[in-house]
Amino acid sequence: xxxxATSIPRAPETAAxxxxxxxxxxxxxxxxxxxxxxxxxxxxxxxxxxxxxxxxDGGRITFTLDDIRCENERSAVTPAA
Length: 81
Known about the structure:
By secondary structure, this protein is mainly alpha-helical. It has a domain at about 20-75. About 40% of the residues lie in helices and about 5% in strands. The protein contains five helices and two strands. The chain has helices at about 5, 15-20, 25-30, 40-50, 65-75; strands at about 55, 60. A two-stranded antiparallel sheet has the order 1-2. A hairpin with a 2-residue loop joins strand 1 (about 55) and strand 2 (about 60). The longest helix is centred in the last third of the chain and has 10 residues, at about 65-75.
């Protein structure tokens, strides 16, 4: 058998698929305006008080896209109609 016959074709990885695994810093989250906080410092302080979903990777605060989505859903206001 050749290497071509035994290899499994992989789906091309898109940028959107890779972003699901990327960890974002508080500075990047604020710069992209993904969460409604005024500064990265405010966001970090909320993380220290465990008010915002995040990861503590080796003592550094990071966010996945799932963390950002959950935080946006948690802070959404439902209409009272």
